What we know:
The protein is α+β, with helices and mostly antiparallel strands. The protein has four helices and eight strands. The chain has helices spanning about 30-45, 75-80, 85-105, 115-125; strands at about 5-10, 15, 55, 65-70, 70-75, 110, 135-140, 145-150.
Amino acid sequence: MASEREKLVSDVVEREGGEGGPAGPSDEVTDPQALRALGFVQMLIEKMEMDAEVTLAPDDGEGSADEIRLEIEGPDAGRIIGKRGSVHEDQLAEMAKKLARRVAKEGKVITFDPMTARDRRVVHMALKDITGVRTESHGEGPDRRVQIIPVKN
């Protein structure tokens, strides 16, 4: 079971552009997309009536310049994120399966936005036994994407 004050880093919330990395808790946040992401997650936590706080995570040098990283802390943090991000992975796998059914039905390729290696693996594993589709990764580095491709019968 999770500790009383569990500290988890949320999924990376991609922003469409801008420069510079995420701001730390002591930095003044001026990026409108970072403020919007922070406000959105705070609103979700409030609406879910969870006991947790969200802040912008300090730049650890691992993310790209177009990422906003959020930290969620508090007694309910584990319920929000899931154990080691499992809630995200489950949602990603379900979304991939839904899209795979659409690809199989319509016969059109679907290409995801760039993903981390871990997220790409979640998609590949979720769809490996789905008939009528196959997956491939294309691109390099942070631009690597997964495609769901119809299989011709």
